[in-house]
Amino acid sequence: MNLQLVIVLLAVAAAAAYALWRILDLWRHRNNPCRHCSGCPLKQQIMEGKTPRPTNCQATGKQE
Questions:
Q1: What angle do CA 12, 15, 36 make, to 5 degrees?
Q2: Where do the H-state alpha helices sit in the chain?
Q3: pTM: predicted TM-score of the whole model, two decimal places
Q4: Cα distance between residue 33 and residue 42, in whole Å
């Protein structure tokens, strides 16, 4: 094999590995809307557990 073919095969293998990694990353985090967010205030509140509680239950309509 010549050097040019080895370099091309390495580049193709790297591109395929990156594509597979991105697809698996998307699959693992498919239900997370903040997957690659840098940090909006709402996400920070959610992660810290400081989200305000709703004043009424939407499922039953009763006041808490």
A1: 180
A2: 3-28, 41-48
A3: 0.51
A4: 12
